[in-house]
Specification:
Length: 422
């Protein structure tokens, strides 16, 4: 009676590798020889479908080892377990275990690198780096990403911080709720990325809804938001008089920012390719706007005069070429050739004016208060001038256009008011 298993011998294997084919040892084990290579195969049926499982090359596993591997596979089949699925699960677990050596910091760096191209500007990536390196990495940066749990996330969000005063240190979530909220969201995104890449499993311990919201108060309830220091609109004419006495590019840029109600970053980043003096128009591209949408800014007579003054300075550097290379030159140049003003320029200017009580951003609030209390312009016109995102469905109807002509009249009135004498 022929043998049903252990049909092969060491000698038969030696002879078999000289000729391509499938050589059965029995019990589903085969030696497969092709193109000068030989490997072990385990064949079996699963739910009426023939399957093959590779057991490794003959060069690494001899006949005895191959039989033991085939025996293990048959035992799994006897227990109702698919041996291929079982091996895949073991490999996945091994990958997960190896990934435990991948730290949170490494995952954060990989996440930022993967998403950097999709972010509007380098500043956004820098904010991620700064927030994580300041608050998260000292606590969880060196830990395996798989080990990050709710307790560690809470430790990050509740770490004690101090401000410039002598007040006792308090929890980050209380001291800086907006920063802490962004930090939590960034940790959540990184841990989600790590899970999808197979570096961790389980629920995300940084998730807010249905998880951390049970442990921490909502950001909006922690404390009232501290707004940027703003000048009462009644005091604006006197302030502008003093500002116009100041010399230098920073003074002209701040005056321009006030007259256009623009954000600091939008003004110092303005380049000549965005300005149309003939049309008295400044067009800020979507990539430089907070809302990610192009913003057209009508320029009042005084704003145009400021730009023309800056143009005289720029002509000396570009030869008057504002359509070629000069189109990318900053309207308000800084100390270094071809570079715009520093983000600190307005702050330092206000300090020189002994107005530490004010911020450049606060003048947008001054403008909004003036528009509401001293003019009859509809609120949506002022909101459009500030490039605010409008959520009301009623006001969204106005946004089918940008109310440009109404805004031109409003900005002219604002310029007139700012120059008024008491």
């Amino acid at each position: 009676m022929p043998r049903t298993i252990d049909r092969l011998t060491a000698l038969k294997v030696t002879h078999a590798i000289r000729k391509p084919g499938m050589y059965a040892d029995g019990g589903g084990l085969y030696l497969q020889v092709s193109n000068g290579s030989a490997s072990w195969i385990y064949r079996y049926m699963l739910k009426g479908v023939a399957r093959e499982m590779g057991l490794g090359p003959l060069a690494l596993y001899g006949l005895k080892e191959a039989r033991l591997k085939a025996l293990d596979a048959r035992r799994l089949r006897h227990e109702g377990i698919d041996p291929i699925d079982a091996r895949r699960a073991i490999r996945t677990q091994a990958k997960l275990d190896a990934a435990k050596a991948l730290t949170f910091k490494q995952c954060a760096e990989a996440f930022i690198k993967a998403h950097r191209a999709g972010w509007r500007n380098a500043k956004h990536a820098a904010q991620w780096d700064a927030t994580l390196s300041t608050y998260a990495e000292p606590i969880i940066g060196s830990l395996p990403v798989q080990a990050i749990d709710t307790a560690l996330v809470m430790k990050v969000l509740e770490q004690e911080v101090r401000d410039a005063s002598d007040k006792p240190a308090i929890a980050l979530w209380t001291a800086k709720p907006e920063t802490a909220s962004r930090l939590r969201g960034r940790i959540e995104s990184i841990l989600d990325w790590a899970r999808v890449r197979g570096y961790r499993d389980g629920e995300n311990p940084a998730r807010w809804r249905g998880h951390l919201d049970k442990l921490l108060p909502a950001r909006a309830k922690v404390r009232r938001v501290e707004h940027h220091a703003a000048l009462p609109y009644r005091e604006l004419p006197d302030f502008m008089t003093e500002l116009r006495k100041q010399e230098g590019v920073a003074a002209r840029a701040l005056e321009f920012a006030i007259l256009t109600a623009a954000r600091t970053g939008e003004v110092i980043g303005a380049c000549w390719g965005e300005v149309d003096l003939a049309a008295k128009l400044w067009t800020v591209p979507a990539g430089r706007m907070k809302a990610g949408k192009e913003h057209r800014v009508p320029l009042s007579a005084r704003a145009v005069a400021i730009v023309e003054e800056m143009k005289q300075l720029s002509d000396a550097c570009t030869g008057g070429d504002h359509a070629g290379e000069g189109a990318r030159a900053p309207v308000f140049p800084g100390g270094k050739r071809g570079q715009p003003l520093s983000n600190m320029a307005f702050l330092m200017l206000l300090r020189r004016m002994k107005r530490d009580d004010l911020t450049a951003h606060g003048f947008r609030s001054t403008f909004r208060d003036w528009a509401a209390e001293r003019t009859n312009f509809p609120s949506e016109v002022a909101e459009m001038a500030l490039a605010h995102t409008v959520s009301s469905k009623v006001e969204q109807a106005y946004r089918r256009g940008d109310l440009f002509e109404r805004r031109r009249r409003m900005m002219a009135a604002w310029s007139t008011f700012s120059a008024a004498e008491k």
